[in-house]
Design brief:
By secondary structure, the protein is of the alpha+beta class. It has a domain at about 1-65. Helix content is about 30%, strand content about 25%. Strand 1 (about 1-10) and strand 2 form a beta hairpin. The chain starts with a strand and ends in a 29-residue tail after the last helix.
Length: about 90
């Protein structure tokens, strides 16, 4: 499996050969590689605390809209043809 890389906020994420690589754009020596099971556990942890992370990242903007909603256009925006306005996050397979 080789999934294209994504670069956000100074970090490059790349999933290849069942390993997730996270590398700093500023210092390529700062990186971590996680096997698929560890990456999935990290994803589960982040999803479990997504509301807290949203408040930490977006502050009062999230509080105004509700902590379970995602900003339109973000990587986790689940809106689409079958969604309704104000739809909460889906588990995305978790």
């Amino acid at each position: 499996m080789d999934i294209g890389e994504m670069v956000v906020h100074g970090w490059k994420f790349h999933l290849v050969n069942d390993e997730l690589s996270i590398t700093s754009e500023q210092d390529p020596n700062v990186h971590v590689e996680l096997e698929a099971k560890a990456a999935y556990s990290l994803l589960d942890y982040l999803y479990q605390y997504r509301d807290d992370l949203a408040v930490a990242a977006l502050g009062s903007q999230v509080l105004e809209d509700g902590t379970s909603r995602v900003t339109s256009g973000s990587a986790f925006d689940s809106s689409g043809p079958s969604s309704t306005p104000g739809q909460e996050l889906s588990s995305r397979g978790l």
